[in-house]
Amino acid sequence: MIRDITLGQYYPVDSVLHRLDPRVKLFGTMIFLIALFIGDSVPGYILSTAFLLGVILLSKVPFKFMVRGLKTVVLLLLVSVGFNIFLTEGDVVFKIWIFKATRQGIILALFMGLRLIYLMIGSSVMTLTTTPNALTDGLEKGLGFLKVIKVPVHEIAMMMSIALRFIPVLIEETDKIMKAQMARGADFEKGNLIQKAKAMIPLLVPLFISAFRRATDLAMAMEARCYHGGAGRTKMKPLIYKKADYIAYCVLFIYLFAAIALGILF
């Protein structure tokens, strides 16, 4: 289960999507999320599905690798779908004890489930095709206008970059601790929910200690190198838009306008 987390990991491969400017990918992810909520209809989801499939094909990242990350949100997905099916008023389709499943609830649950899945895959595509350093540079450059109102853009971008960079590190650390605990007789699979939660304590305590130790080491390393934020700092690889980036922007705007039009019509 720990190895199934794909959000925050980078998949190195040469593709059109990997070569795009990180600002384009950040903007594209935002447009995709907006379009999912605007085009809340069958034609809207067909459009979003076609767009997402096209992006996945362009990324050259194996589809199985992206879908693997959905295992981590199965519980959230089941809870959201269940609530929508049984707590939405409408025409009753079937009844389980005191719970009534309605036609409107099933439709709403289907849309909600697809939306959660698409949100997870869409966010994963961005991190899988963008290195943490490029993501930091793109976020800082894209939100540079906020510096006028004294928003610490560089610090925010740096915190997000460090958080994304530490996701695969903590996953690997968790896997090592879990194997060490299992070698000592720990069982993380058997028992009810409460017993499984108690079994996680020997895993979480050393994981938190390791995370705080790594954070302290990183802070000391940054302080030893006299790191003081983004003021006056230059980039070894400055971000420059290319022809492919402008084409991608045009495609994104066409997709957004199409989603808005479908949202109005349907």
List the keywords:
266 residues; mainly alpha; 11 helices; 2 strands; 3% strand; ABC/ECF_trnsptr_transmembrane
Shape: flat
Number of strands: 2
Strand order within the widest beta sheet? 1-2
Helix content percent band: 55-70%
Beginning-to-end CA distance, first to last residue: 39 Å
In the predicted model, the low-confidence regions spanning at least 5 consecutive residues are none
Structural class: mainly alpha
Summed up, the domain count is: 1
InterPro entries: ABC/ECF_trnsptr_transmembrane
Pfam families: CbiQ
Membrane topology: Multi-pass membrane protein
Subcellular location: Membrane
Summarize the structure.
It is a multi-pass membrane protein. The protein is mostly helical and 266 residues long.
Description:
It is found in: Membrane. This protein is mainly α and 266 residues long. The chain has one domain. Helices cover 68% and strands 3% of the residues. It has eleven helices and two strands, in the order αααααββαααααα. The protein has a two-stranded antiparallel ribbon with strand order 1-2. Helix 2 packs across helix 7, helix 2 runs parallel beside helix 11 and helix 3 packs antiparallel against helix 11. The model has no long low-confidence stretch (mean pLDDT 80).
